[in-house]
Design brief:
The relative contact order is 0.16. About 20% of the residues lie in helices and about 25% in strands. It has twelve helices and 17 strands.
Length: about 400
């Protein structure tokens, strides 16, 4: 059980170090703690690289209200196996492996039985939170990790470790809904809202599936990147009402990756009847939805909740069209371990990695500020092995 009253350094036998946020300022600094000894079904590995997800920023600052301190972020973790429990069968010493968003679940519920550990009511996040023994979980901004082999993913030999790290969160977060919501048939037309850490990976997976992809962004400056670099088929500026009207009812599905509050009704109007709008971002404010366009497909700006007509979005002045709609609004959160391995293998086969900026550990606070401003193409990855110094 938990070592009650003991300091982070004393809770477990293996001395460990990393960088942690100590309070809601979110500022990270060197931190000494400890990890448990390797259990019989556990894998211990040296951390080589760790991606920085937007949720790391949210958690470091307690934007979602459930962070506990000290907090070591990081759930896009890749490394090299250094020790194995005597009942581990999937890995060997020296294997390249990864850990994503989850390190535990109940193992007995319906979701666990269906390889959907991410939806287990007792799932255990890589951080924050507590493990089965009651001690705090610490993420991958650290020199090593230990996890049950069930929650460890094998990284294929032909995959870049730095470029592959963000796929353990961003990759599975976009891959899983494309599969679950039936949006992988070649020729299917999808929109990708937002061209950031999630969005650029969504474009890559969608193109690998043979989809027609339209990137939807508030920034006209991202057009060339979307079309020429990432290979999208079309680009829409969401603040341009003429462009948006021209695209009404053209898309089979939309993957919305934006983590800030934004109007969604103009986006839902881009869907064909029976289309699917899938939310992947996690804005702190609730999104505002009008039901009529979901039910009937009616393009009636006057029926929208008034605050949806946000600054920068022109009134469309469209006349009512009473036509069948049956549009779906759904969501998705990461993926189970079986599907995560499937995603990694698919990515390796199709040469998919994240576009990254590799940084040293001592740059992490600057990186967090740049991430907050959207100043990264498209994912920061910490070179942990070569830059994390012992405390």
């Amino acid at each position: 059980m938990a070592a009650a009253g003991k300091s982070p350094e004393e809770q477990h036998p293996v001395k460990t170090f990393g960088w942690a946020a100590k309070d809601t300022s979110g500022v990270l600094s060197p931190f000494k703690f400890s990890r448990r000894a390797t259990g019989e079904k556990e894998v211990r590995f040296k951390v080589l690289f760790c991606g920085i997800c937007h949720s790391d920023l949210h958690c470091a600052r307690n934007d979602w209200g459930f962070s506990t301190y000290p907090l070591v972020p990081g759930h896009e973790i890749v490394g090299e196996v250094t020790e194995l429990g005597n009942k581990v069968s999937k890995f060997k010493i020296g294997d390249k492996v990864g850990v994503g968003c989850f390190i535990g679940s109940c193992g007995s519920c319906e979701d666990c039985a269906n390889d959907l550990e991410n939806y287990c009511p007792k799932n255990i996040y890589t951080y924050p939170g507590t493990y089965h023994d009651g001690t705090p979980n610490y993420g991958g901004f650290s020199n090593e990790m230990v996890a049950d082999e069930h929650f460890v993913v094998r990284i294929p030999e032909n995959m870049s470790l730095a470029g592959g790290a963000p796929l353990l969160c961003a990759g599975i977060t976009v891959y899983s809904p494309l599969k679950y919501y039936g949006l992988t048939k070649p020729g299917t037309h999808i929109g990708v809202v937002g061209l950031g850490g999630l969005g650029h990976v969504a474009v890559k997976f969608a193109k690998a599936f043979g989809l027609k992809v339209t990137v939807i962004s508030t920034s006209p400056a991202k057009k060339e990147e979307a079309l020429k670099t990432l290979g999208a088929d079309a680009f829409l500026v969401s603040k341009d009402s003429e462009q948006m009207k021209a695209a009404v009812r053209t898309m089979d599905g939309i993957i919305d990756t934006v983590s800030a509050f934004h109007p969604v009704m103009p986006l839902i109007d881009l869907l064909k009847n029976h289309g699917k709008f899938i939310v992947l971002g996690a804005p702190a404010q609730p999104l505002e939805i009008s039901v009529f366009p979901l039910l009937t497909g009616a393009l009636i700006s006057g029926l929208y909740i008034p605050s949806i007509n946000a600054p920068g979005y022109d009134s469309w002045n469209v006349q009512p069209i009473n036509a069948p709609g049956r549009k779906m609004m759904g969501a998705s959160g990461a993926g189970g371990l079986k599907e995560t391995q499937e995603m990694i293998d698919f990515a390796a086969k199709h040469n998919i990695t994240a576009d990254i900026e590799v940084i040293p550990m001592d740059y992490v606070n600057t990186a967090m500020e740049r991430l907050h401003k959207g100043d990264v193409k498209y994912r920061f990855v910490i070179d942990v092995a070569n830059s994390l110094k012992p405390v």
